[in-house]
UniProtKB/TrEMBL annotation:
It comes from Maylandia zebra. Belongs to the sodium:solute symporter (SSF) (TC 2.A.21) family. The chain crosses the membrane at residues 13-32, 52-70, 82-106, 127-151, 157-176, 183-206, 239-257, 277-302, 337-362, 383-402, 408-429, 436-458, 518-543. It comes from the Eukaryota. PANTHER family: SODIUM-COUPLED MONOCARBOXYLATE TRANSPORTER, SODIUM-COUPLED MONOCARBOXYLATE TRANSPORTER 1. GO terms for cellular component: extracellular exosome; plasma membrane. This is Solute carrier family 5 member 8. GO terms for biological process: propanoate transmembrane transport. Its main location: membrane. GO terms for molecular function: organic acid:sodium symporter activity.
């Protein structure tokens, strides 16, 4: 980037405002259409009338927070395109969710995921699961704060003006329209997010003279590093850590995380719910591909002068905005489109969280204790949306004071999914697991995951295990006198893929035990929960447990059972058809006779098919 400050111009602000107003208008439109929703259940689930395509896009949009837009390209820039192996984990997670959790949750028609925990285990287990979920309030605050701070550093836009406007827009259409407004707004926002990515990728390809140049630079810089099958659990990114760790992580998100379960439970039928999950895989794959290509574009431009090492930015999360202002500043409106994409990512995540927290509060805390009319419950649901919108702003304020603690929050947010995944899997798959085993498994799994994450902060894996790729500053030639400030500390937004801050090498090697890859935290929590839950249940009479069949997975619930049955029936029908054909062929020809005709012998056979003698 040159020394001249690149700031947004009027056209960028217009594009930014129009895109966000369009997003809000869609939400308000569906809020108006849904104004006659008669029950809180309709408000929180969309009346279970949503179609597969809209829900699939909403599932993808809620995943694409500003973490994805800002942090994942920086991850590829620093650690290589091996990050793309996460796509395999997406497929595994969605198949597992579709086969194991979806049939049970959809059959029960529950509004809160944690309602299942009380039905299957106990009230205490439900409350603990709910408390773990509410920890995500802090995460939602960070999702609002980080992109607002990034935009503040780029444009000078008022920081708290950005935060409050984001929370206000989300809160309004969540409170007025409920889940239906959230889902249809997500549909628009996913398009805006991809447009932001594409603006960066297409301009980068044009400036570099084609995608082949970008790939060639990435190959020379070691960024095309897919061939890494090291099983060492201390390694940050290998095929195994990304596939196994990613599969556990995303199974916990899609299988047990309230916002995702609430979405596919809102579909008009279980077929639509399954279809939404599988279409969503395509959205996730496109998102990940965009992140990887954006990261490779970053490296192609800055392979000889890394802005992070050169002190032009203070955090890897600032690298993509830095590139945007570097290559798109001369194209009025495009920088505004990109930052609108970042804000759209925040809007989708925040609105998702607000709606989910309102649903959990209503179903887990209010309805079990207070008997109210549907009209009052609906008003309370809308009031809860407003309340949690205000809380999110407060959490953003807390995030601004946290500093270096945000890495810890990121890790803890990630590891809570593992124990819950283990608990829900036990409940659905193991009828002998009782309430004592379930609760003990959840507590010990959570303790194990949090302990490992704390060790990871105290004693992270050394550089030879994380293996950050080489970044050069030899080609840097910055002029002085720039008023453009990129070095205001930008906190790393909480992410399952957040970069671990560097530490003194001597301190690292002084510690004898190092943390496994951050992707294994969820695996450790999940497996601990399963193992402890099974052992405790067997020791406390779990084999005598009687469980309502509706709470368990039955083979007839799964898609694989019906596919296998159809194949088996097809093979059996083919065998029967073949055997019938053989029988018919044997019956069609009777034994031949050879009557003597004159002085010779003429072979004659009766043909049942032709109804006469063959000669």
């Amino acid at each position: 980037m040159s020394g001249d400050a690149h700031l947004l111009v009027a056209a960028d602000y217009v594009v930014f405002a129009v895109v966000l107003l369009l997003s809000a208008a869609v939400g308000f439109y569906y809020a108006w259409r849904s104004r006659k929703q008669g029950t809180s259940r309709d408000f929180l689930t969309g009346g279970r009338k949503l179609n597969a395509l809209a829900v699939s896009m909403s599932l993808t949009a809620s995943y694409m927070s500003s973490v994805t837009v800002l942090s994942n390209p920086a991850e590829v820039y620093r650690y290589g395109a091996i990050f793309g192996y996460l796509s395999i984990s997406y497929v595994i997670a969605v198949v597992y969710t579709s086969e194991v959790f979806l049939p049970v949750f959809y059959r029960l028609a529950i509004n809160s995921t944690y309602e299942y925990l009380e039905l299957r285990f106990s009230r205490a287990t439900r409350l603990l699961g709910m408390l773990i979920f509410f920890f995500n309030l802090l995460y939602t605050g960070l999702v609002i704060y980080a992109p607002a701070l990034a935009l503040n550093q780029v444009t000078g836009m008022n920081l708290w003006g950005g935060i409050i406007s984001t929370a206000t827009v989300c809160t309004l259409y969540c409170a007025l329209g409920g889940l239906k407004a959230v889902v249809w707004t997500d549909v628009v926002q996913i398009g805006i997010m991809f447009a932001g990515y594409m603006s960066v990728i297409i301009k980068s390809v044009i400036l570099k003279g084609g995608i082949s140049t970008i790939l060639s630079d990435a190959q020379e810089g070691g960024r095309i590093n897919f061939v890494d099958f090291d099983i060492n659990p201390l390694r940050r990114h290998t095929f195994w850590t990304l596939v196994i760790g990613g599969a556990f992580t995303w199974s916990s998100i899609y299988g047990t995380y309230q916002p995702q379960v609430q979405r596919y439970n809102s579909c008009k039928s279980i077929k639509h719910a399954r279809l939404a999950l599988f279409i969503n895989v395509l959205g996730l794959a496109c998102t990940l591909t965009s992140s990887v290509i954006s990261g490779l574009c970053l490296y192609s431009f800055y392979k000889n002068c890394d802005p992070w090492k050169a002190g032009q930015v203070s955090s890897p999360d600032q690298l993509l905005p830095y590139l945007v202002m570097d290559i798109l500043a001369d194209h009025q409106g495009l920088p505004g489109l990109f930052f609108a994409a970042v804000y759209s990512a925040s809007l989708s995540t925040v609105s998702t969280s607000i709606n989910a927290m309102a649903a959990v509060t209503m179903e887990d805390l209010i309805k079990p204790r207070i008997k109210l009319s549907e009209k009052k419950l609906l008003l309370i649901s809308k009031g809860l949306s407003v309340f949690f919108g205000i809380v999110c702003v407060a959490m953003a304020g807390l995030a601004s004071l946290m500093g270096h603690m945000m890495q810890a929050v990121s890790i803890i947010w990630g590891v809570t999914g593992g124990p819950l995944l283990g608990l829900f899997s036990l409940g659905v798959l193991c009828p002998f697991v009782n309430s004592i085993g379930g609760l003990c498994g959840l507590v010990t799994g959570l303790a194990a995951a949090v302990s490992v994450s704390i060790i990871g902060m105290i004693s992270p894996s050394p550089p030879e295990m994380t293996r950050p790729l080489f970044l050069s500053t030899e080609g840097c030639n910055f002029t002085t006198g720039s008023s453009f400030n990129w070095t205001t500390p930008l906190p790393t937004e909480p992410s399952l893929f957040t970069t671990t801050p560097g530490q003194n090498t001597d301190d690292i090697h002084a510690v004898q035990w190092h943390s496994p890859s951050y992707l294994y935290f969820c695996v450790i929590g999940g497996l601990t929960s399963v193992i402890v839950g099974i052992i405790i249940s067997l020791l406390t009479g779990g084999l005598r447990e009687t469980v309502d069949p509706r709470l368990m997975l039955m083979k007839e619930d799964t898609l694989s059972y019906h596919l296998f049955k159809r194949v088996k029936d097809g093979v059996r029908a083919e065998e029967q058809r073949y055997q019938k054909q053989q029988t018919d062929d044997r019956r069609s020809i009777l034994p031949c006779t050879f009557p003597s005709l004159g002085h010779g012998r003429n072979r004659q056979c009766w043909s049942a098919k032709q109804g006469g003698w063959n000669q």
